[in-house]
Amino acid sequence: MLTTDTSIKRRVSRLLFFFTVIIAGTSIFSSCSKKTEEGAVGAEATISITVGGITTEDVATPGGKTKSMSLAPQTIHGETIANRRVLKNGKMEMSLIAAESSNISSAEDIDLEAPIYDLVKQPSRYKQMSSASLNSPALSAVIPGVRRAMASGVKYWFVLKNRSTQAIEQSVQVVSGTTLKLDVVKGQYYDWYAYSYDNTDNIPPLDANNPKVQTYTDKPLLYASGEARVQSFQTDISVQIEFKHQLKLLKIHIDSRGILGDITDHIAEFVDNDYIKTGLFNVIDGTLGSLTTVPTTTLSMVEEVQGSHQFLVDQYYTADIVRDRYKFKVSELKIKLPDGTPQDLLANFPSGREETFIFSDGGKGKIHYAMVDIWRNITKKRIMQFEPSEEFSLAAGQIDRPSGAFFKAPINFGPGVECHMRIEEMSRHVIIPPSRKGEIYDYLEGDQYKYDPDIVIATGFANYDSTDYKALYKHLQRGGGLLLMASKDNGSLIEKHILKKIFPNSSNLSTNSVNEQPGVIFKLNQVDVNIQTWPFGDVRNRYWGTHGYETLYLENLSAADLNDIEVYSYGPVNKNNHRLTSISMFRHKKLNFFYVGDEGFLASRMTNLSAQDNSSGENPFTVNADLFPVPRRLYGRIPESSAVESGNLHGWSVQNSILFGNIISWLLMQSEYNGLEP
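RESULT FIELD:
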């Protein structure tokens, strides 16, 4: 076969093209391999910056191992107790406590004394329930831990530095809750830095030639740093900032809630004036230096909880993170007891005038608490519990259910300095179940009468009759305490024999039992701050939930009688009928009386005491493994379309167990001061 010149040329051309493709392909492959490793330098990309939260500094020993404090004694709020000195005088006690914790507080915190949790945003609980098991991590909306969200609207400063040129390419103020996008070059390594004073004030621009910022005594300094690089196959990467506190917080408090005493006069001061210091923080290398003393002696103690004269605090952020001891002097401390009697606490505890609070160590991100806590050791109290349900422990009478276990646990109610409520002893008589009408009467006045109980816990049960409610009313009149929980009022007996007697100015008063199904949610009004915040937690502006199918409301109370109660909650937030004037929970100001419009307020059938049921409308009472009351997460029925909080599809965090602890503690204290005669 003859081959023409044209054919030869075509073959040569094809061979040349083939080898060119191979060579080019090899070059491209080599180039691609190199770019995959080093990045496509020069291409445009973006970095998206958001705030993840505030985390703790690692606690480490000099050897580099993580320090465990799990065996150290702790306060009720989880701070580790480094030192404690207890002074006693009769029934009164003064505890001088040096306690410490890691600081992950943020500007959105309602109460720095509350237990610290990491809030994890969940998908809609109503979509989870069909497939999630009881122990599924998806059901844990709150994980005890070392992280907290930063409040939206807080301002921080973000700096982006080119690692190759060492030039600061971006330096900008950002608002938490928004996403900052910055243009960058692919393949280039960047170092980033962020700092914040954890408030909404504008931050002065950072001086690139002297990148140091001032610290202050009245606000924290948060800081984070890291590196970023967009690779060739990416067009955007995310940087999530996890801030850490860089200063130490010294917090001093005087707390007289343990004796229900309003602090009327106080003078407290540092013995030395060089405890508090400011400094300059280098944003690039993360060091703190140039410490300057801020002379401070007299303390400006103010209410920690607005409206409470029983809990005073002062606090300072200091750049002196190494100091581990402070000496205080209290030259005046007077209170007024609930009955109006004045008390000079320093006359009762003269050795409490001066104290050196010694902590285990210092460090950035630590909180040092210098606590002066005043307690009255409550004498033995007799509790009578009419328990209609062994399964649910509706009157906290079953020790194999959460409410009963909580109420029985000595760590919660006991005589020791480690106990959350100081009481010598509780004699508990549980009637399970009230088997006939007239049984409450028999125990309080009739054939079964042996003594007058200091406190009665009862649910509005169908077996009660008029003699029972009359006996409960007489118990209140004698100074006894009563927690009454009711979902029905058969024959209007509660209305006739208790409510209309304690509310004489309300001729149109009525009880209204409404079938609303379990899991109805109520928001707590911010009232009674000394009860709603102590001793088991802060429930202000939070929620409680029903267990029963019906809610018993109090209607048509006159203005005069309204003045005699504190209304804890009105109508539901997840039902179309708002019932804005219907009262679902209240405390009487002149009687030792709490009313809850749900007989299942304390309900839980969980025999695994610290487990949380996966029901949305049953078992709202919850404790942890230490039998300490904790919120019941992801609770409540799906809100109806016109409900007050119709947009909440994640459920509510209900505080039934914490609120019960606070209520029963108040009833115990009242029985000590204004209760039955011995």
